[in-house]
Amino acid sequence: MAIEFHALRVSAISRETRDAVAVAFDLPPNLRDSFKYKPGQYLTLRLFIDGKDVRRSYSLCSAPTRDGDPTIAVKQVDGGLASTYINTKLKVGDTIDVMPPLGNFAVDLKPYHAKHYVLIGAGSGITPLMSILLGVLDSEPDSRVTLLYGNRDKDSIIFNSRLQELAQRQPQRFKLVSILSSPGDDWQGLRGRIEKDNCGDMVRSCISAPDIANCWYYLCGPSGMMVAAQAALRDLGVPDDRVFREYFTTPLGGAGSADVSAAVDEEDVDPATNKSGFEKSFVTVRLYGIEHELQVAPGETILDVAVREEVDPPFACQIGACCTCRAKLLEGKVEMDEREALTDEEIEEGFILTCQSHPRSARLVVDYDQ
Ligand SMILES: Cc1cc2nc3c(=O)[nH]c(=O)nc-3n(C[C@H](O)[C@H](O)[C@H](O)COP(=O)(O)OP(=O)(O)OC[C@H]3O[C@@H](n4cnc5c(N)ncnc54)[C@H](O)[C@@H]3O)c2cc1C
Ligand code: FES
What pLDDT does residue 87 have? Predict the structure, then answer.
């Protein structure tokens, strides 16, 4: 079944920095199974702000290895609708529609793992990394973690005191390297933004050369930081399949476009243009066990039309960064503008991001329930 929103009560709000809050949710016993999560996954919130349905994803910063309510941390973005509302108006006791956890930027914790996780993040990108850090420290006794964390100044470091405390308590298992772009004169640490050259230097200074390619890298931060870190890791000889990324904004330097097809009738596709020769494609959408017949014009995405026709499909970012709009293509062919949030295995199995998918055959069947 496709995932649905559930009304959750805000159980606590704590201010982490001047412009970031952590928000915890009360989970009633009947939702505990649906809301089980892996470190690194995110929740999708539906807020109603000034009469508008506003959906945004927020990574969990809590860890499933600890008791306590699932918690997100939200940094206020200048002029941002949801992040400003959450930072300035949301109150303990309010009820919000929340979708169960999703996302492929997730760690499968195993007590027998002996891995070195290298987390590279900046600003609010710390949220999924915090969950991964806590999860690994709690449940993989032979694994260790290095965190390279970029911020503007000391006051803007989300979870600063908790991170310092963890690094002091377990120095053999957790190393914290902070870099600040606008620190005061009293700052003794690294200065600057995370860029390609200094990212490579930071990795080399924390990890011995023969081990660099054997670590597991998790990146989350602004797109520029992600591109820089990925390039630095490639230069250091780290294979791409050891690097995992979570984008909060447009996935610049992401995985790019992809074609997906399933049981496609080749007569539906013009081989010259690789597109349907028809003016519109006929798309059957299955959601919550019900079939809807849609007509999608060139230039439109399947999600655009599903929303317009009030099918009520799941979605959030609409930029290919989360995977809330994921569905399985059972028949036909699509071209995705951006496929960042899907794994190679999901693409091979026929999963698509409907917010990025343009029909390339005359007839398609798309199933949100799988
Ligand atoms: C999978 C996923 C997980 C996420 N996890 C977190 C999280 O843990 N914590 C968190 O704070 N945010 C997270 N985000 C980002 C979050 O979903 C929103 O995009 C963000 O809060 C801005 O929403 P808004 O409504 O306030 O801004 P909007 O009203 O949507 O945008 C206002 C302006 O801000 C720009 N903008 C949008 N997002 C950002 C951003 N993140 N940084 C800088 N500029 C931006 C927009 O381009 C626009 O110009 C995540 C996003 C994704 C896709
Ligand atoms: S809604 Fe986020 S990828 Fe489609």
Answer: 98
Q: Is residue 360 part of a domain?
A: yes
Let me know whether 120 and 230 are in one domain. yes
Structural domain range at position 288:
258-367
Task: Tell the residue nearest (CA) to atom 3 of ligand 2.
Answer: 320
Residue of 317, 334, 338 to mutate, ligand 2, most atoms within 8 A of C-beta: 317
pLDDT-flagged residues of the chain (< 70): 1-2, 265-278
Distance from residue 236's CA to the centre of ligand 1 (Å): 30
Task: Give the domain-ending residue among 246, 278, 304.
Answer: 246
Q: 361: CA distance to ligand 1 center in Å?
A: 34
Would the CA dihedral through 262, 265, 268, 272 be positive or negative?
positive
Residue nearest to atom 20 of ligand 1 (CA): 83
Same domain flag for 237 and 124: yes
Same domain as 323, residue 221: no
| Dist. CA 353–CA 136, nearest whole Å | 30
Q: What is the pLDDT of residue 344?
A: 94
pLDDT of residue 3: 81
For position 275, what pLDDT does the model report? 59
Ligand 1 center–CA 259 separation, angstroms: 27
Q: Whose CA is nearest to atom 26 of ligand 1?
A: 80
pLDDT score, position 279: 78
d(CA 61, CA 71): 6
Q: What is residue 255's predicted lDDT score, i.e. its pLDDT?
A: 83
Indicate which residue's Cα is closest to atom 37 of ligand 1.
249
Tokens of 82: 């949801």
CA distance 231 to 210: 19
Domain end call among 54, 76, 101: 101
